[in-house]
Amino acid sequence: MIREILKFGDPLLRKSSSEVTCFDEELNVLLDDMYETMRNADGIGLAAPQIGVLKRVIVIETSEETGKLELINPVITAMWGKQFEAEGCLSLVGKRGIVKRPMHVKLKAYDRHGNLHRYHGKNLLARAFCHEVDHLNGILYEDKVLEWVDNED
Ligand code: NI
User: Fold this and answer.
1) What is the pTM of this model?
2) CA of 62 to the centre of ligand 1 (A)
3) Which of 1, 81, 117, 132 could make an SS bond with 103 (beta carbons 3.0 to 4.6 A apart)?
4) 40 is in which domain, residue-wise?
């Protein structure tokens, strides 16, 4: 089911989300709805608080190569390098801004079955990891934008 995406200014986007403790059917439904909502909006990442659910759950699909990633209780374990690229957010349609992010991000997270996985994101995937984990802590990329850019591409 496609859920409504909250927009910047909504106080729920500024809350810190709680860890998932129950890997149950409700979590499966949440993840499936998040994928559907993200795809419907042509996004590459969505965090649960963006649909008003204050849980540490993220879906990311930056390329066919990496496929669909579901990240539950994600923790960044290492980051290095830097990049300055334009970022957008499904909660702020029609805008993009340059944000400084690490070039490499290592992250561990659970899947819906409660299995722990480790990921190494580079370039776009590293940016997506940082952007979406920020959402879980009530941080929005507008806080970090160095320069707003045209939304042409
Ligand atoms: Ni976002």
Assistant:
1) 0.96
2) 13
3) 81
4) 11-149
End-to-end Cα spacing for the chain: 28
The answer to the question of residue 3 being in a domain is: no
Identity at 26, one-letter amino acid code: E
Record the tokens describing residue 18, joined without a space. 């709680």
Cα(9) to centroid of ligand 1, in Å? 13
> What distance in angstroms lies between residue 90's CA and the mean position of ligand 1's atoms?
6
Side chain identity at 79, as an amino acid letter?
M
pLDDT in tens, 96-119: 999 999 999 999 999 999 999 999
Q: How many domains does the chain have?
A: 1
- Catalytically active residues are 132
The CATH number of the domain holding residue 97 is 3.90.45.10
- Asked if the structure places residue 135 within a domain, the reply is yes
Q: Cα(145) to centroid of ligand 1, in Å?
A: 13
